[in-house]
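Help needed: design a sequence for this.
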């Protein structure tokens, strides 16, 4: 026999009750408050007289857009989507395009990389769009610290697409303390807008 937990029961009712049953209604409220600048953030749900809270902290070391992990000595690659074009480092990403191509016609996509060491991994994926996108090489590992890597994309349907490329710090560097576990930190995103026509 399973012991009854009123908090679990309340959460279960919140997740599974249909609209209009009274489980979530005027008696329920969700609020978020910050206790102090740079301090804790508390999300609180109050329903049917029961209060549930989850606490998080605003800690600078957890900012996700840092291009460098000092503890692991990892650095995000610099990425450009045009030869001699603007370059960026970090997760916020660099945007390019739009580029125009016909359905099922090849579209070369090139990323220019700069990194402290050879071995940057590039991964190409469809980020948005109505149809399928195929790549001649969806993953590319660069053996040089700087250079260009090209894949060919083909689009199955007309429409507006966004293709994403991720440039990730060396996954296989033996100097990395997590070598062999495919840990990666500090990557750079790139996005290419593509318009596909008949």
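Sure. Designed sequence:
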């Amino acid at each position: 026999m399973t012991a009854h937990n009123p908090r679990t029961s309340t959460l279960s009712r919140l997740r599974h009750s249909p609209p209009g049953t009274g489980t979530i209604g005027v008696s329920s409220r969700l609020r978020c408050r910050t206790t102090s600048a740079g301090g804790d953030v508390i999300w609180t749900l109050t329903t049917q007289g029961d209060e549930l809270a989850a606490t998080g902290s605003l800690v600078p070391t957890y900012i996700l857009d840092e291009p460098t992990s000092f503890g692991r000595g990892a650095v995000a690659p610099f990425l450009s989507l045009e030869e001699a074009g603007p370059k960026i480092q970090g997760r916020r990403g660099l945007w390019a395009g739009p580029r125009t191509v016909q359905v099922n016609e090849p579209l070369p996509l090139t990323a220019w990389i700069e990194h402290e060491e050879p071995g940057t991994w590039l991964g190409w994926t469809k980020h948005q769009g109505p149809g399928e996108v195929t790549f001649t090489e969806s993953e590319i590992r660069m053996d040089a610290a700087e250079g260009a890597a090209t894949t060919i994309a083909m689009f199955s349907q007309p429409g507006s697409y966004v293709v994403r490329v991720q440039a990730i710090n060396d996954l296989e560097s033996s100097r990395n303390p997590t070598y062999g576990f495919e840990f990666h930190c500090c990557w750079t995103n790139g996005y290419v807008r593509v318009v596909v026509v008949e």
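Helices lie at 6-16.
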